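Figure 2 data, in text form.
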Amino acid sequence: MSGWQLACPVRRLTINQQGRDFVVGDLHGSLSQLRIALKSLNFNAKCDRVLSVGDLVDRGPGSRALIDWLDFPWFYACIGNHEAVLLDYMSTQDAELARTWCRFGGGWFFTLPDDEQAAVAAKIQQHCSYAIEIADEHHVAFGIVHADVPGQLSWQTFCEQVVQQPEVKYDALWSRSRGRGESTHVVEGVNQVICGHEIVAQVHQQGNVWLLDTGAYKGKQGGGKLSILELPDRLHTFTDQ
């Protein structure tokens, strides 16, 4: 995780007073499932927002197209570990990293011409953030991060440290301890946090943290589903079988 920076490491949004906010679990190229889900939810681009926990790419067929969703003014995304690996590769051109990445779904990227690879990386750096928060002038209602808020950090301290502290950045992108039930503490300074990364059988909370990755890309094999949390706490699930 070196050699690149995000234009907006922590994205701060105001409470949506006009419409609804939908937080989506790891998509991994599951664009058709997302489109079907948003249609069934009567998503209104004029007032509703979609917020991604990250891992838009790899494994599924819609990876390249989902990167273009970053251009929509109502779509916001955290950076996931898969996007981070993409940026790592672009900054290093490391052949061994490329081989490893292809083993967990990165092959689509190497079908793109060089200029399009660069354009994909630029969009991720421009639009993705380590964390997204939704707040009013008094408090942070919701925080979104790919994997977890590490240790006993408050939300505010996490947002301050995630840019400069490599171990905090690593946990934000890669930690699996909460998804595996090993970390259950409440994150102070925020009402609710929503994470993905570790596939869980059912969406649930550990402390005040929602675990939202239910393996959308496995849907056609009957092993996963797309989960969407309509804030504050209305859960929607969609299968693709």
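Caption note: The chain has seven helices and twelve strands.
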